Amino acid sequence: SQTIHQWPATLVQPVGSPLSLECTVEGTSNPNLYWYRQAAGRGLQLLFYSVGIGQISSEVPQNLSASRPQDRQFILSSKKLLLSDSGFYLCASGTGGLNTGELFFGEGSRLTVL
Amino acid sequence: GENVEQHPSTLSVQEGDSAVIKCTYSDSASNYFPWYKQELGKRPQLIIDIRSNVGEKKDQRIAVTLNKTAKHFSLHITETQPEDSAVYFCAQGSWGKFQFGAGTQVVVTP
């Protein structure tokens, strides 16, 4: 099965500072990759998903961006964090097309913006 | 857009009783319906899933039923135990995209 590495696990950032969360995947090739945000311990909001290198789809307008420089690497960034960016960020990997199946999640990154 | 509605938002059951969580969806093209369990502070993990060509699937104390005509699917947990306490999410998947329900907080009391 797939293994999702995600870091950092926890970070506290001031408003207006930049952000970079990184995710790498083992055990598969050419996966679909996803960034989800979970606020207040409930609800998974899809932020970005990618079907291949350099291909990013944004699901919600915000001050975040994502990049996929390599097949199994997915990065979530921000130039200037807002208070509302606080939350639990989850990277996920899965298969698409007709074979859509299990999403494998990373351990998550808990972001607190002060 | 495609939505998944999940009920109830909170469910308290006594140990040994059954728990049922229901979800409805709107995207008729969905062909994959997973259920995830998330313990406090941890990542969601798949507990059971079902595809659209199957009406029911069971794995020990957990079962999922799917009614494609009515566009709803349900999770059944029998003989609940304290370790079943967690948040459970239903989801619908199609062509690599997923819509998640809002989650159900299940509390199993001894």
Detailed description of the structure:
The complex is a heterodimer of chains A (114) and B (110). By secondary structure, chain A is mainly β. Chain A has strands at 3-7, 10-13, 19-26, 32-39, 42-52, 55-58, 64-70, 73-78, 87-94, 104-105, 109-113. In chain A, strands 2, 4, 5, 6, 9, 10 and 11 form a seven-stranded mixed beta sheet that branches. In chain A, a hairpin with a 2-residue loop joins β4 and β5. Chain A starts with a strand and ends with a strand. The model of chain A has no long low-confidence stretch (mean pLDDT 92). Chain B is an all-beta fold and 110 residues long. Chain B has strands at residues 4-7, 10-14, 19-25, 32-38, 45-51, 56-59, 62-67, 72-77, 86-94, 97-100, 104-109. In chain B, the strands form two sheets. In chain B, strands 2, 4, 5, 9, 10 and 11 form a six-stranded mixed beta sheet that branches. In chain B, a hairpin with a 4-residue loop joins β7 and β8 (72-77). The radius of gyration of chain B is 13 Å and the shape is globular. The mean pLDDT of chain B is 93. The chains are: A mainly beta (114), B mainly beta (110). Chains A and B meet through β5 of A and β4, β5, β9 and β10 of B.
List the helices and strands and how they pair.
The complex is a heterodimer of chains A (114) and B (110).
Chain A: E1 3-7, E2 10-13, E3 19-26, E4 32-39, E5 42-52, E6 55-58, E7 64-70, E8 73-78, E9 87-94, E10 104-105, E11 109-113
Parallel strand pairs in A: 2-11
Antiparallel strand pairs in A: 1-3, 3-8, 4-5, 4-9, 5-6, 7-8, 9-10, 9-11
Chain B: E1 4-7, E2 10-14, E3 19-25, E4 32-38, E5 45-51, E6 56-59, E7 62-67, E8 72-77, E9 86-94, E10 97-100, E11 104-109
Parallel strand pairs in B: 2-11
Antiparallel strand pairs in B: 1-3, 3-8, 4-5, 4-9, 6-7, 7-8, 9-10, 9-11
